[in-house]
Design a protein that fits this description.
176 residues, alpha/beta, 6 helices, four-stranded parallel sheet, 4 strands, globular, single chain
Length: 176
């Protein structure tokens, strides 16, 4: 059985309530943390409020998911990070920092013997904030030698990575 729950991962009480709705007959077997918020600007234009806006959903969300599930027998705990976390990107210092935290957090969980996989994904072609950006500026990725990931490719990649024994991996179509 598949149960999908949705909650604001920053709100620990709301998340706990959502997790409590999962029936005992079909216990939680995995977590996919796929949240992302963008607030792009030059570093000199970023104040703490703009950093927090981008960091909180990733950092606090991951921590809440961890603390509410760390005693469960999970098969996977996937953190959708971003290639920006290790490649960087102009105007995305806060986004890079948030994703670098997710990457480090995956290693923290792994060190505790818990399942953890942080996937530094490149941009997806049809869904998400990057897809919106690509619709406005289709050459933005190509200008830096990158290509977008089609959703069906992304699902195939996830299925493959869930079978691997790795904690962090970059998935970025690059032609440099």
């Amino acid at each position: 059985a598949l149960t999908i729950v949705q909650a604001d991962v920053i709100d620990r009480a709301q998340l706990a309530e959502a997790l409590a709705t999962i029936p005992p007959s079909a216990p939680l077997r995995g977590v996919i943390h796929a949240v992302g918020v963008l607030d792009d600007a030059a570093l000199t234009q970023l104040d703490w409020q703009r950093f927090a806006k981008v960091l909180a959903p990733k950092m606090q969300g991951a921590w809440n998911l961890h603390t509410l599930t760390h005693e469960m027998a999970l098969d996977f705990f996937v953190l959708y990070s971003s290639a920006v976390g290790f490649l960087g990107n102009q105007g995305q210092a806060n986004h890079a920092a948030a994703n670098a935290v997710l990457d480090a957090f995956a290693h923290y969980r792994h060190a505790q013997g818990l399942p953890a996989l942080s996937i530094n994904l490149g941009a997806w072609s049809e869904i998400g904030a990057a897809a919106d950006m690509l619709r406005q500026n289709p050459q933005r990725l190509a200008a830096v030698g990158q290509h977008a990931i089609a959703p069906d490719q992304g699902i195939q990649i996830l299925a493959y990575l869930l079978q691997q024994a790795t904690t962090q991996v970059g998935v970025i179509p690059i032609n440099w």
